[in-house]
Amino acid sequence: MEKDELKKLNHLSLVSNVCNELETHLGPSEKVLAEFIIELGRNSETVDEFDKKLKKEGAEMPDYFVRSLLTVIHGIYPPKPKSERKKDDGEDGGSEKYKGLAIKDTKDKVKELEKEIELEARERQREEDRNRDRDRGRDRRDSGGDRNRDDRRDRHRDRPRGDEQGEDRRSGRHRERARGDDDGEDGRSDRRRERGRGDDEGGDGRIDRRRDRKDEYTEDGANEPELYQVYKGRVTRVMDAGCFVQFDRFRGKEGLVHVSQMATRRVEKAKDFVKRDMEVYVKVISISNDKYSLSMRDVDQNTGRDLIPLKKPTEDDSSRSNPSYRTRDGQVTKTGISGIRIVEESDVAPSRRPLKKMSSPERWEAKQLIASGALKMNEFPNYDEDEGGMLYQEEGAEEELEIEMNEDEPAFLQGQTRYSVDMSPVKIFKNPEGSLSRAAALQSALTKERREMREQQQRTMLDSIPKDLNRPWEDPMPETGERHLAQELRGVGLSAYDMPEWKKDAFGKTPTFGQRSKLSIQEQRESLPIYKLKKELIQAVHDNQVLVVIGETGSGKTTQVTQYLAESGYTTKGKIGCTQPRRVAAMSVAKRVAEEFGCRLGEEVGYAIRFEDCTGPDTVIKYMTDGMLLREILIDENLSQYSVIMLDEAHERTIHTDVLFGLLKKLLKRRLDLRLIVTSATLDAEKFSGYFFNCNIFTIPGRTFPVEILYTKQPETDYLDAALITVLQIHLTEPEGDILLFLTGQEEIDSACQSLYERMKNLGKNVPELIILPVYSALPSEMQSRIFDPPPPGTRKVVVATNIAEASLTIDGIYYVVDPGFAKQNVYNPKQGLESLVITPISQASAKQRAGRAGRTGPGKCYRLYTESAYRNEMPPTSIPEIQRINLGMTTLTMKAMGINDLLSFDFMDPPQPQALISAMEQLYSLGALDEEGLLTKLGRKMAEFPLEPPLSKMLLASVDLGCSDEILTMIAMIQTGNIFYRPREKQAQADQKKAKFFQPEGDHLTLLAVYEAWKAKNFSGPWCFENFIQSRSLRRAQDVRKQLLSIMDKYKLDVVSAGKNFTKIRKAITAGFFFHGARKDPQEGYRTLVENQPVYIHPSSALFQRQPDWVIYHDLVMTTKEYMREVTVIDPKWLVELAPRFFKVSDPTKMSKRKRQERIEPLYDRYHEPNSWRLSKRRA
Fold first, then answer.
1. What is the structure's pLDDT at 173?
2. Which of 136, 804, 888, 1145 is found 20 to 30 A from 761 (Cα to Cα)?
3. Helices within 529-654 (DSSP H only)
4. What average pLDDT does this structure show over 667-672?
């Protein structure tokens, strides 16, 4: 009987869960529909089968949602007995479809990689020590022969092969180059290492050895052709494009000599130059999968002598890397720790201008001048009689190179990538046709219009300024007022931080705010709602391994729970860790708790955020961002330092929180002594409890007052204007109490504050004062803290905030909330591989949170600037978790580094779209972080060590190979800190002028480098930043980020080397990481991305805005009025193929490229005929 009752209860719970899921994704749903879906799911073994049944009944649902439903149904009604994992996840159908996401988990390979990397670092350290000792003993070389011999013996032990002549003379850097090859991903690294050493002998000896090849190979015992060696052979087949040559020394081995490699002069057809069975000398110039490319033109065909022998590396060569081989073009090819084949330019400083052949008339003219004796031959250093003319330098004469995507799919993603599966962007609007969606789209257009109007006013003002400000001082009789005007204008721009009037009012003068709380810290702690439940809470944590805690913002859970647990002895077993979704929250909460705990910040109480660790050996309570805890799990999977983990603000569902859920759920089974506390808003508590083994829920009653909710009768088209009118209405008609207005971002907030200030000014002095206070993350913290101060008596304050004030901040004294119903969300499109910030309607849960802000101090009102119908039908019940709408590259890499390969079976609370995971795996594969089987490579493991997005990690590791890591470190640090330049609205022209001084012709990355170097040259001066409209806070943060990255580089003994003035190396390193962000100039207008052929434009603030080069790489795209590229750098298209062969290839010259096919032919303007009359279809008519 009891069993039946339990089954019924389970069934009712399942029906309720399915109803909730349907409501979240599709809107209001019926119980009958839920039961029908459960019945279909019970009888479906796989996701595909379930999907087909749903489609048959006319229900079109996204893949991830179908799988989520089946998981829920199979949790109660398993289809048939299977292993526990299959039962929990119900992923058997998904793993068939997405094999690349269902690779078996394995930690062994990851541990092996970690050991290898550790050994490598130790080896580098030893090498450094040996070099140091050698440098010290260089003066005493004669007497210290024994030690040198020991050194040499050590090196022989480390690297048992190869000819070691001249070892003592070589620099340590070159030896590192020989060892660095281990990281190459192909199997030829050992062979290259041998060769690298053999080639280091003196030049004369090398030529002599090559004259007697037979003896050499008898000694070395090589059994296959080696790169850059000369061999004798016989022509076996001749074709138009080249000939095959069989090696005499190696039976059955042959290679191809392309027609371009036959002679220094131009050969039209191979038949004209070689005959079958002809004996030739050839040099191996490349080896790929046992296919040999050969050259005849590099070898003297009479003697077999190598005409272009490899040079011995000099002291000037770039730092530690691999054996380098110099090609005919004076370029060096090597494979480095970043796994890329790098072709370096010759040591000569690179010229920006490409070489171009002279035209026939120019050539004739040059010959005549030389023949007449008017000019000497040596005045034409590039003259080449064989080629029939000379090459001379001319801007923009680069040959056109057609590049296309390499559509070869790796084995583990066969049939799953963007080339084979239609990837749709995430659906973020519940009702795309509703009034809220229309209002969001209209607001973007209005913002654009307002921005353009401001810019127009700015231009008009600047045009009215006299251009020559010195003239009035030279003119003895200037016009009235002219001298005075010039004097004023000369001062323009001297003070960078002239604020707009509204900001001066809010922050400029010394505040005369009302009295803050008179209570002592202890009394404040005791006044919090959680204090009354202290004993019950400690007991609940003791009794339950997992506890979900619900409490309104301001109930004290974030600051008090950790202290209560510390007081009750949990810190004796380990630290108490508390995660926050935002950096600002982690820092401010830690500061407050340190005050209450009675210690200095960083001692017993500390915090850790990305690039900043403020903890010490005594720290027992540690606040951190959820991303930092994820990195700690990467280093210590059992979190052995911690006794309690608290996931605070878990309802925000950041991507890191969602991954932590899955990892901690597994960890709790291994560590029974670990306690986990999850704090959440009321709505999600049931869901969290169900996920964590149906754990108990502990509720803290909030001190909330009733809030009256008011809706608009009609939908608002311009919500920003409506919000400002509402604020003024409240200020003029409602009793005292502060106002909180929610807007979407910095630009909107600044615009609203400006407009509100002007409207208040127009109302005159009889109106009570309204203090306007903005809050957004880019605002300095001292300005942010003003919002907590009470206003002076007789005035009212309005706080204009982003959704940070929804839950993370508690502001006392708020009685009125104005909620337009929108927020900005980061949304990823896996098809385009792009993220964009989009204004979207908030969820019903967020709307309730916002309304709750008005009921903290007393009964309040919430003005919702949307209709009740929009609230019910157009807002999703809860926000879409971040994991289902953003790029998963970094998350996937971190999980792979933990040995988690089976991403489909990983226990996500809400699984991400498989397409987004596939897109992330594709990106990691093309960066070289994954191999052909989808497993982590050594490069991937190193990339995971850096707290950076995968492309940035790859860029940093590539810079080590290219010898420019010092500059790349600075650039990454500058990019990570956000906006460096300050552009006050009323001094935009002056700010732009100062900024232009730093512009570099190569692009924005080098501009950022120039700013940092200039700041460094001025001894990191603050006043210098003010003068140049640069945010000193951002530069100081960049300095901290750089130090953090430097410590990780030091840990793995990666060299930090400067490239000096060789900017080509720097641009190549950027290309190595961001090759998929390439764009090419479009003949019509702007640029087209190489990946999706999407129209994009260089941002007006870019150093390249005026130049518009042919090929660029950008850091990211930002959508304002158009899709703008930010942080743009000029590149050479050859580098794309060279540095990312998995992603790009040179298109077949015999076929028309995709880009050419898509180009629309536009004829010249013809005023006498209609626009399309030139087309063939019209002519036929």
1. 40
2. 804
3. 534-543, 557-567, 583-597, 626-635
4. 93
Q: CA-CA distance, 9 to 711, in Å (whole number)?
A: 39
1057 — phi, psi (to 5°)? -125, 145
User: Taking the complete model, does pTM exceed 0.85, yes or no?
Assistant: no
Q: How many CA atoms lie within 13 A of 376 on its CB side?
A: 2
Confidence of residue 1067 (pLDDT cuts 50, 70, 90): very high
CATH 3.40.50.300 region(s) of the chain? 521-699, 707-874
Residue 445 belongs to what H/E stretch? helix 435-463
Which residue shows structure tokens 């069934």?
Answer: 11
Segment of 485-489, 805-809, 957-961 carrying the highest mean pLDDT:
957-961
Q: Which amino acid is at 806?
A: E
Phi-psi region of 601 (alpha: psi -120 to 50; beta: other; left: phi over 0): beta
Beta bridge mates, 834: 829
Considering the chain, tell me which residue range(s) the CATH 2.40.50.140 domain(s) occupy.
230-307
**Can you tell me the distance from the alpha carbon of 130 to that of 1034, in angstroms, rounded to the nearest whole number?**
40
Supply the pLDDT for residue 664: 95
What is the signed CA dihedral for 578, 582, 586, 589, rounded to 10 degrees?
Answer: -100
Second CATH level (architecture) for the domain 707-874:
3-Layer(aba) Sandwich (3.40)
Distance from C-alpha of 710 to C-alpha of 818, rounded to nearest angstrom: 10
User: What architecture is domain 946-1145?
Assistant: Up-down Bundle (1.20)
For residues 240-250, give the mean pLDDT: 86
CA 834 from chain centre, in angstroms, equals 11
Domain 230-307 has CATH 2.60.40.10: no
**Which segments of 138-268 does DSSP mark as H helices, in order?**
145-158, 172-180, 189-198, 203-211, 213-220
Please check the confidence at residue 314 and state whether its pLDDT lies above 60. Answer: no
Q: How confident is the model at residue 1152 (pLDDT cuts 50, 70, 90)?
A: low
Q: What's the sign of the alpha-carbon dihedral 881, 884, 890, 894?
A: positive
DSSP secondary structure of 1041-1054? HHHHHHHHHHHTT-
CA atoms within 13 A on the CB side of 1178: 7
Cα distance between residue 529 and residue 644, in whole Å? 22
pLDDT digits (tens, 9 = 90+) for 531-583: 999 999 999 999 999 999 998 777 888 999 999 999 999 999 999 999 998 88
What stretches of 763-888 show up as alpha helix (H) in DSSP? Answer: 781-784, 804-807, 844-852, 868-873
CATH 3.40.50.300 fits 521-699, yes or no: yes
Cα gap 647→548, rounded to integer Å: 10
Task: Please give the Cα distance from 344 to 330 (Å, whole number).
Answer: 9
Out of 31-35, 202-206, 1041-1045, the most confident range is: 1041-1045
Tokens of 119: 């050994």
| CATH class of the structural domain 888-897+909-945 | mainly alpha
Cα separation, 88 vs 82, in Å, equals 10
Whether the CA torsion 866, 840, 72, 646 is positive or negative: it is: negative
Residues 929, 954: contact at Cβ < 8 Å?
yes
pLDDT tens per residue across span 893-916: 999 999 888 888 899 998 988 888
**HSE, side-chain direction, 13 A CA sphere, residue 1147:** 16
Say if CB 676 and CB 547 are below 8 A apart: yes
| Segments in 911-1002 forming alpha helices (H) | 914-927, 938-945, 950-962, 965-976, 988-996
Q: pLDDT over 70 for what percent of the chain? A: 74
Residues of the chain with CATH 1.20.120.1080: 888-897+909-945, 946-1145
String of b and e for 930-939 (b: at least 16 CB within 10 Å)?
Answer: bbeebbbbbb
Determine the Cα–Cα distance for residues 154 and 83; give it in Å rounded to an integer. 53
The residue written with tokens 């005959």 in the block is 275
Helix, strand, coil % over all residues of the chain, rounded to 5:
45, 15, 40
Q: Which of 779, 783, 796 is nearest to 729 (CA)?
A: 796
